[in-house]
Structure formats: C-alpha cells, structure tokens
C-alpha cells in the first residue's frame, strides 16, 4: 500500500473518530439539559391552616435581619395547639441571592413569574442598597405595596423600613429603623412619625424594628401578640434568648 493511501486511510479514521466523539458530547449535553429542565424546582411545604410568612430577599440582604425572624417563625411548627407558620423566601429571580456577608440563598419563589401562596405575614429584612438603588426598583416597590394590602402583618428590620416607606405604607403610622439611619430616614421621608430609642414599633398592621440582633425581639413580639407570652418565652428559650416584653424598649400605636 502506498504511503499516500495509508495517509488517507488514517485521516478518514481520525475524522470518523472525531465525528463519533462530537455526536456523543452533543447527546450528553442535550440529555443533561433535558434532565435539568425536567427537574422540578424545590418548593417548601405549604401546610393549610398556617400563617404564610414570606421573606423578601435580594442581593445584599443582611444575614441577621433575615435569619433572626426566620428562626423564630419557623420554630412555631414545634409548638402544639397554635396556628404555626409556613416560612419561605421570595425574590425577583430563580438564581441564588448573595447576602451581604456572602451567604448564597436559593429563593423558594420568584414573585415575577411564580404563583405564590397567599401571604399573611410579609417580612422585609434590610439589604445593602435599601437606602439607594433598591428604592428605585419600581417593580419590587409595587409588589410590596400590593402584597401589603392583603397581608395581616407587614414587618421590616433595620433599613427594610425604607422600602415600606417608599411604598407609601407608613404614612399613617409610627415607625422606626436602624438607629444611626434615623436622620436619613427622617430626611428622606419628612412626613413620617418616627420613633427613636426603641427596638421596635407596632402600629396598625406594621411592625418595624431597629434590626441587627434585635430582630429577634421584634419577631418574638409578633409571636407573643399572636400566641401569648408563654409561647413566646418557649420560642425564645429554644434559641437561648431571655424574653420579657416588659423589659424591651418598644412603642405600640393603634393595634387591634
């Protein structure tokens, strides 16, 4: 066999091998995409007869203002004889939200496209840009306003109050926010009734808190309001928190 014929034969074998490899890779990729698309997104269990507590999260959300009330509310499922809470997160995307401290959180629901359960309790934790660019997110502000109209309670922690104020929800009630941001809060929303030197304020359906580690207190207060002092102390004890409402600086306005 001539060297040229050998060369052509080897070349044909190479291209045949290459074609088989490319087809195999393409099939593998298609199969992977098919499996990914067919895999249902994880959804938290929404049990009938409970309060639905939704936590609005976005990039830059602060861990404590999210996890403190989430912990308190989630632990209600371990208390007998009460209307416990389903807790879940809501964002404007399916991809992971990156907290300010670097925690990656996959939202349970995308409010832009998913069908959400009715929300009884809306929680707005603070986020890095709640004093600036987040307030320019008209879609998010509109969603907060719409959900608040039918929610039984709307709560904010730290600068989450800026979102509620931007949505026009706090115009007729007293509120508070992160202590060092109160001057900015008053400057940005000069017509609000702002309460300083307290850990949280409850007025109407709105509970606004100073945030940080004191987000636990605001969440425990709502549980005491709903379930009574004994249950609230039990929830606090489960997280090694001393809870006595009488010793906590707070303001209660017009509530049912």
Explain what the structure shows:
With 256 residues, this protein is an alpha/beta fold. The chain has 2 domains: 1-39; 51-252, Class I glutamine amidotransferase (GATase) domain (Rossmann fold). The protein is 38% helix and 17% strand. Strand 6, helix 3 and strand 7 form a beta-alpha-beta unit. The chain is globular, with a radius of gyration of 26 Å. The N and C termini lie far apart (99 Å).
Strand order of the largest sheet: 5-2-1-6-7-11-10-12
Which CATH architecture of the largest domain is right? 3-Layer(aba) Sandwich
At the fourth level of CATH, the homologous superfamily of the largest domain is Class I glutamine amidotransferase (GATase) domain
* Average predicted confidence as pLDDT: 89
Number of domains: 2
**Structural class computed from helices and strand pairing:** alpha/beta
**Strand count, sense and closure of the main sheet?**
8 strands, mixed
| Unreliable stretches | 30-38
């Amino acid at each position: 066999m001539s060297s040229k014929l050998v060369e052509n034969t080897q070349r044909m074998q190479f291209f045949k091998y290459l074609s088989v490899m490319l087809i195999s890779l393409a099939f593998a990729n298609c199969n992977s995409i098919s499996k990914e698309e067919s895999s249902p997104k994880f959804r938290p269990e929404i049990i009938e007869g409970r309060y639905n507590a939704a936590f609005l999260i976005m990039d830059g959300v602060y861990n404590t203002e999210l996890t403190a009330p989430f912990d308190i509310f989630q632990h209600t499922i371990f208390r007998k004889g009460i209307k416990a809470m389903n807790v879940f997160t809501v964002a404007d995307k399916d991809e992971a939200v990156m907290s300010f401290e670097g925690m990656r959180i996959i939202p349970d629901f995308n409010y832009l496209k998913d069908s959400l359960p009715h929300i009884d309790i809306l929680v707005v934790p603070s986020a890095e840009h709640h004093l600036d660019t987040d307030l320019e997110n008209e879609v998010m502000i509109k969603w907060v306003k719409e959900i608040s109209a039918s929610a039984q309670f709307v709560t904010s922690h730290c600068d989450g109050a800026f979102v509620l104020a931007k949505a026009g929800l706090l115009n007729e009630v007293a509120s508070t926010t992160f202590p060092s941001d109160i001057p900015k809060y008053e400057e940005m929303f000069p017509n609000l009734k702002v309460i300083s030197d307290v850990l949280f304020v409850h007025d109407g359906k709105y509970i606004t808190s100073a945030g940080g580690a004191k987000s636990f207190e605001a969440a425990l207060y709502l549980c005491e309001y709903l379930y009574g002092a004994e249950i609230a102390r039990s929830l606090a004890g489960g997280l090694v928190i001393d809870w006595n409402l009488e010793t906590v600086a707070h303001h209660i306005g017009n509530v049912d």
